[in-house]
Specification:
The protein is α/β, with parallel strands linked by helices and 325 residues long. The chain has helices spanning 35-43, 50-67, 69-81, 89-134, 157-166, 183-195, 207-212, 238-247, 279-282; strands at residues 8-10, 15-18, 29-32, 138-142, 170-176, 199-202, 218-221, 225-227, 232-235, 252-255, 261-262, 297-300, 307-310, 313-316. The chain is globular and about 60 Å long. The structure holds 5-S-methyl-1-O-phosphono-5-thio-D-ribulose (MRU).
């Protein structure tokens, strides 16, 4: 049986983070003994993927609780701010802070571990339900990376794809490279290779032709934040896939935990979109001063999403997640 390397390992007073920037060339762990190390690991994408960011931020808050109240006061803000589009740190950090105020550092650590375990269980539920939705789709297309490395468990969209394939309901997955940081190539294609899951890598710009040729039965993506009306923030390049899928009448599915639904936002226009460094786009081309626009995420309107598969069920249009009172 194949085992993928753990992305986050808690070691009593430190968090070990698999440095996903170095995959697949090296399996290197960063030791985060201070909460500021965790902020850095999140901001620099050593750990990435919304659920994994949330789990890491929870452990970061636990490290701050060990350090003391002043550290926790700063950490609760900076851990959430490190990647502003992902909603999860805004859920996990307050949970750990509340545990710390009731039971001190030990309770904070226990809460962070609980958050990690809960995500693993939710992922399995999403994957099992998602496998039923995908059964018979033959080949599917995915974007970015939504597998085990991005979560506390089997993954979201890639978890569903994996479980559908294991059940004999799916032939394989096309993986978009996912510019500019190549999560689709470096992580999804690699993870599929480790699992023996049949896959084909394609340049992002080839996806429209793939859909036009009818080579996939569904498009499957994860989410960083979902609003009450079903709008979905996900890795930049997701929106064009949704538009093309609608044009060619191919189902476009989002797989995410209910913790990714932001009940405080009624529409995707309210989602903060992370803008990243110009160097991520220009330096690979040897350009040092070219002006760049580099949003890390886009927002797909819920009207283009065929279904959102969560651990609670298969939600279909029109979406009406309950707003926060
Ligand atoms: O910038 P990243 O790599 O953190 O972006 C990740 C994504 O967009 C994923 O699709 C999303 O977080 C879901 S991960 C289960």
């Amino acid at each position: 049986m194949v085992t993928l390397p753990a992305n986050l390992v808690w070691r009593a007073t430190a968090l070990e983070v698999l440095d996903q920037r170095r995959l697949p060339a090296a399996e290197h762990y960063l030791r985060c003994a201070r909460w500021t190390d965790v902020v850095e690991a999140i901001a620099q994408l050593a750990v990435r993927g919304a659920p994994a960011i949330g789990i890491a931020a929870g452990y970061g808050a636990a490290l701050a609780a060990i350090e003391g109240p002043a550290a926790l006061d700063r950490a609760r803000v900076e851990l959430v701010r490190a990647r502003p589009t992902a909603v999860e740190p805004g859920v996990t950090v307050p949970r750990v802070v509340a545990a710390a105020s009731l039971g001190g550092p030990e309770a904070a650590v226990a809460e962070a571990v609980r958050i990690h375990q809960e995500d693993a269980a939710r992922c399995e539920d999403i994957a099992q339900l998602g496998a039923q939705v995908l059964a018979g789709a033959d080949w599917v297309l995915t974007h970015c990376h939504t597998g085990a490395l991005a979560t506390g468990g089997v993954g979201t969209a890639l978890g569903a794809i994996r479980r559908a394939w294991e059940a004999g309901g799916l032939a394989g997955v096309y993986c978009c490279e996912t510019r500019p940081l190549w999560q689709g190539a470096r992580l999804t294609a690699w993870e599929c290779g480790q699992l023996g899951l049949p896959h084909r890598l394609l340049a992002d710009g080839a996806a429209g032709s793939l859909l036009a040729e009818g080579r996939v039965g569904a498009v499957c993506v994860g989410a960083d934040r979902i609003t009450v009306n079903g709008d979905v923030a996900n890795k930049i390049g997701t929106l064009p896939l949704a538009i093309a899928a609608a044009h060619y009448e191919i189902p476009f599915y989002v797989f995410a935990s209910m913790t990714t639904v932001d009940a405080g936002l009624v529409s995707g226009r309210q989602i903060p979109i992370e803008q990243r460094s110009a160097d991520e786009v220009r330096l690979p081309h040897g350009l040092e001063t070219t002006p760049v626009w580099n949003p890390a995420f886009d927002v797909t309107p819920g009207t283009l999403v065929s279904a959102i598969v969560t651990e609670t069920g298969v939600h279909r249009r029109p979406y009406g997640f309950l707003p926060r009172p």
